[in-house]
Design goal:
Elements: H1 2-9, H2 16-26, H3 29-33, H4 37-42, H5 47-57, H6 62-71
Helix pairs in contact: 1-6
Amino acid sequence: MKKYYNAFNQIELIGPVRMRKIIKYFSNAKNAWFAPQHDFEKAGLEASVIDNLFRQKEKIDPDKEMEKLSKENIRTFTIND
């Protein structure tokens, strides 16, 4: 699950307040990562933020991003830790 938190963390305009809305609606970052675009409006995000999220999301591979962190011995922490 941490890989999806890390992936969202890389998306401009997704900070702690919006991430809290996402988690509240989808219950976890993995569900949110694979959710359709229209569900993010129901989660309380603005249309411009949602458009930005999906443009940036296309460029992010959560597995590869976690591999990069692992190679550098960087540990991740989420709001659940």
